[in-house]
Amino acid sequence: MFEPVLLKNIDAPDGHLLSTYEAGGGYQALAKVLREHTPDEVVDLVKQSNLRGRGGAGFPTGMKWGFVPKRADKPKYLCCNADEGEPGTFKDRIIMESAPHQLVEGLAVSAYAIGAETAYVYVRGEYVKAIRRLEQAIAEAREKGYLGAGVLGSDFNFTVHIHCGAGAYICGEETAMLESLEGKRAQPRLKPPFPAVAGLYASPTVINNVETLACVPHIVMRGAHWFRAIGPDKSPGPKLYCISGQVRKPGLYELPMGIPLRELVENHAGGPLPGRSIKAVIPGGVSAPLIPEGGLEVGMDFDSLAAAGSMLGSAGVIVIDDSTCMVKVATRIIEFFHHESCGKCTPCREGLNWAVKVLRRIEAGDGAPGDLEQLEKLCKGIFGNTFCALGDGAAMGLRAALAHFRNEFVAHIDERRCPFH
User: What class is the 326-415 domain?
Assistant: First the structure.
């Protein structure tokens, strides 16, 4: 029987307080690693668990930590990416609002493992409540000796700073986030060098997502075998799924990694609205290519979704029913990416601009023969030719819409109107 661990205090009105967190075993993982483990042993434990990053890329967390040089002539930094700008995603906000100490402890254990004494939490600026809860949690933890100089009587010193973003989706990309932290315009960097070698202030830096860091204390206390026993071996552990769109019970669900998408949508989220049927589901935020109703048996994990031509991404599940115009969906998604493009790469900046113009023309009933081929050509020019994955996500999403619902695009052009509206 699966028992939630990340959201166990989500409904408690005082779940954000230190007293509640301590009563449930909070900060015991930090005390344990300081008392019983070397930093290398903590890194090895996370490697054994096969925890993969919950921010979207799914890169093995322990491996990322292992890339940090053991000896460096500059300080090491830990950065938490809490920008969460992916549409359909709200899991990190709930952790920060409902269980902020879970994140703070995860930061402390992770910083100890990589040899960092300073951490920055880059938070989406609109998350006012989450920011206040984090500030309160950091103050409580500092007062009790979980942060500051000589944490819990050890020789480990650790400080956490909060940095509020200014509404840029591109800051979800790790190097653009580092640029913003340094006071520069948020644009992705060319890699290599990778952040583990030259990140914040050209120093060794590890960047992890909120949910990723929140998993770390549970791995320390329950063991790597416990974590690997949940879900598929290549993508194990508990997972937070954000469900929104045209579904009966939208919300945040903690379930095992690898649960079938159909079970997630129809059983846990209650299925489509009365009188409607599911047309498609976006499984991982709008960067993830949509999956038509016939493919919903796919498992919600990194490898299964990749094999199905999509990706888990941020696990922002958006349900689309049969009343929805897929041309309008595609147009809105590409408008979003065009608006949020930082403009650094010509294929992304110019390609998305033209894609928006063509899609708006088709949606308005002014489409022309050759428009769909033009969109496919634009996707080809964007995909794989940009500094970061923003352009790739846009191109993959548009390609999927064209592949699975081409008939709707053709109908818009032939009938010179939207058949749905």
Answer: mainly alpha
